[in-house]
Design goal:
Layout (H helix, E strand, L loop, with lengths): L12 E3 L8 H10 L3 E3 L2 H11 L4 H4 L3 H18 L6 E3 L1
Parallel strand pairs: 1-3, 2-3
Helix pairs in contact: 2-4
Length: about 90
């Protein structure tokens, strides 16, 4: 497997972490309602896209490696369009 090389970038991004149902999305949505920039949780985005296409969560997650790679691809695509100097809260 080829290793991806990343150049470190200084950002003004804040990642909200915590256990399931601990209020991460609620917190990020509240900050968004106050006018702050935010980004969605990439796995949730992927699952929502799959359900929108008629798949079940079991079907979406059947191949865990493929699921994880897809989540990473969504996150990288999102981070590539965000401005590092803008304060942004990530779910």
């Amino acid at each position: 497997m080829n290793k991806i090389k990343f150049k470190p970038v200084q950002t003004q991004w804040v990642v909200i972490t915590g256990g399931p149902s601990s209020g991460k999305t609620t917190t990020v949505n509240h900050l968004k309602s106050l006018g702050f920039h935010s980004s969605p949780e990439s796995a949730r985005t992927l699952i929502d896209m799959g359900i929108g296409s008629g798949l079940t969560t079991s079907e979406i997650r059947r191949d865990e490696a493929k699921f994880n790679q897809s989540v990473l691809n969504i996150q990288l695509a999102l981070e590539n369009i965000l401005l590092p100097e803008k304060l942004c809260f990530h779910d």
